Amino acid sequence: MSPLLACSGLTMRFGGLTALDALDIRVGKGETIGLVGPNGSGKTTFFNVLTGLYKPSAGAVQLAEQDLFARSAQEIGRAGVARTFQRSRLMLDQTVFDNIALGALGRLDLSLLSALVLRGRFRRQLSELVERATALTRRFNPQIAANLFKPAGSFTMIDRRRIEICRALVGSPRLLLLDEPSAGMTHEETRALMDDLLAFREEMPDLAIVLVEHEMDVIRRISDRCIVLNFGRKIFEGPFDALIADREVQTAYLGGAQ
Amino acid sequence: MSMADLAPSVPAQTARSGGLARLAVAATVALLFAGGGFLLHAEQQGQVIALLAAFVAVFALAEKVPVGRRIVGLCRAHPGTVNLTAAVSILAIAAALREEHYTLLMMATVALFATAAAGLTLQMAFAGVPNFAGAAFFAVGAYVAALLGNTGIPHLLVLLIAGLAAAVLGLVLLLPVLRTRGHYAALVTIAFGLLLRAFLEVNDVLGGPQGMKVKSFSLFGLDFSRMTEIGPYDVSFYLPYALASCALFGLAFFLVRRLETSFVGVALDAVRSDEVAASVFGLSIARWKATAFLLGNAMIGVAGALYGMMNGFVNPNSANFGDSLIMLSILVLGGLGNLWGAVVAAVVILVIPEKLQAIQEFRLVIFALLVIAILRFRPSGLMPRAARDFSALVKGGAK
């Protein structure tokens, strides 16, 4: 069976700097990949290329047989790739619902006619979306579900991260990219968020996840398979236990003893 | 924010309690409009100063004292009552002041500038596209009215064509505006405004520096400038203009509010707040900025056309940068994104300097101090925009 996401020879050059160097990465349906590597190794660049924020220099990207190489962010988003950001990109002045709705807008009726005159369709879609957002947020924290129309900025860091994940999930993506969900959180908060992730993992068995993380504990608990990047190259691929035993990975992270 | 603050809010319950709340809202709005009406009409300095003091007190206290907060919350929870009371109040003011030329002229001017501000609201407050050429698009509308006013095309259609013309002319700007951001996009629009004014000055077909006469507005064969009585009442010929201008603002208000409370509004807000997140989730930044820019310019153009017809002439000076800044000030002072704020700010900016004539040039000092004070004490405007709350639109409530 062909994988959900297949990147081959994916290369991203910024002038003379090769940020991604002929990456071959495959992600199967329902698989969770832990993507690790030192700072500057190309993890976030990989996400930015996958979501169309950067145009890759060479290679091939396919999502379920659909060619996504160098497509626009909009096309890629509509093809079913959703993500969160390392630094929160919520609209803090707007309500939780508005933030989550953004994740579904690509599939909703955005014509001026139905916004201005034929409101029936809009209202139906709105009711459905409110229901869906309520169900989704309730799974993470009932307090969010009960305050769907409060500004996102009035929630704690961990709840904001949860709202971001809900925004990425509301459009029923096929591939979810999580960029350091534990960044800036305490150990307890990280653990709580991991519990959430594992819980919805079971409810969405087909969803493929790529997770960038520095917390090895998180990687160990969540990922089926790990990929290590260094200087834009893949230096390791395999299960977590093999990862921590791998000499090249240790050298990349801790520096080599000559 | 603590969990206690996150508890379901009071307005959700009061929304259902109805009657008394609606009455309070209606009384508040009627009172505010009555104050506005008095200000429009007041001629003695003492009255003007007293009204100004009352105005400052209302806005200083509205969110400081519990009663004020409660009333603001109620007004937000009952937009229908607010709008209805406002419409009735405007009709009442117009009826009471039906013979006062100057007052009605001010009223129409405020309504038309507020309509232009509605267009700018779409562009700047929603989509985040700066437009420092508001007066230029306003003037385009007036010039179209001058060119087509005598051709026998029904004037309602002329207004529509004026809006279209402003939107089409805005297309020239679209590409550079979409390719730049922030200050740079602002500079592009400033340059366009200067360019348009220079073009109008040297162009003899459009009357050169002298400008053109604009035929007065007539609706279904009823010439507004000849209207001096309605039934048994003598009226100023500015009365129909004042009413038409308010109706035009009402239409603009309706359109902008509808867009705001739809998925289009969410899309525009997302495009403004975070282009990266918006495009990752499938929104086309160019499409939404272009939509807001063109629709906004069309609204400004229509308002400009009626303004030109009311004044009877238009010249290149109408497209000056200062007037564009006045439109922007109305937007910022009122609170970006809140159209009632734009109305109040239009009164502050357009009416107050006129009302302080007696103290000569000092009026500009007082006016400037007032503007600075507003921005110092209410940095997000007189009436900041509230977060969009869809819960009223969802059948049976969300919770």
Content-based structural category of chain A: alpha/beta
Pattern of helices and strands of chain B: HHHHHHHHHEEEEEHHHHEHHH
Strand content of chain A: 15-25%
Counting DSSP H or I runs of 4 or more residues, the number of helices of chain B is 16
Query: What's the arrangement of strands in the largest beta sheet of chain A?
Result: 6-7-8-3-9-10
Gross morphology of chain B: globular
Average pLDDT level of chain B: 85
Low-confidence stretches of chain B are 1-15
Spatial order of the strands forming the largest sheet of chain B? 1-6
Q: How many E-type strands of chain B? A: 6
Shape of chain A: globular
Largest sheet of chain A: 6 strands, mixed
Second CATH tier, the architecture of chain A = 3-Layer(aba) Sandwich
Level-1 CATH class name of chain A: Alpha Beta
Q: Into which percentage range does the β-strand content of chain B fall?
A: under 5%
Report on this model:
The complex is a heterodimer of chains A (258) and B (399). Chain A is of the alpha/beta class and 258 residues long. Chain A has one domain (29-54, 70-254): 3-Layer(aba) Sandwich (Rossmann fold). Chain A is 41% helix and 23% strand. Chain A is built from eleven helices and ten strands. Chain A has helices spanning 43-50, 73-79, 96-102, 112-116, 119-140, 142-146, 157-169, 187-203, 216-222, 240-245, 247-254; strands at residues 5-14, 17-27, 32-36, 58-63, 66-67, 81-83, 175-179, 208-212, 225-230, 233-238. In chain A, strands 6-7-8-3-9-10 form a six-stranded mixed sheet, sandwiched between helices. A four-stranded antiparallel sheet of chain A has the order 2-1-4-5, with helices on one face. In chain A, a hairpin with a 2-residue loop joins strand 1 (5-14) and strand 2. In chain A, helix 3 runs parallel beside helix 7 and helix 5 (119-140) crosses helix 7. Chain A is globular and about 65 Å long. In chain B, strands 1-6 form a two-stranded antiparallel ribbon. Chain B has a two-stranded antiparallel ribbon with strand order 2-3. In chain B, strand 2 and strand 3 form a beta hairpin. Chain B is 70% helix and 3% strand. Chain B starts with 9 loop residues before the first helix and ends in a 22-residue tail after the last helix. Chain B has a domain at 100-339. The relative contact order of chain B is 0.15. By secondary structure, chain B is mainly alpha-helical. Chain B has helices at 10-17, 19-41, 45-61, 66-77, 79-96, 101-126, 134-148, 155-179, 182-202, 238-260, 263-273, 275-280, 285-311, 321-334, 339-355, 362-377, and strands at residues 212-213, 218-219, 222-223, 229-230, 233-234, 313-314. Chain B is globular. At the A-B interface, helix 2, helix 3, helix 4 and helix 5 of A face helix 10, helix 11 and helix 12 of B.
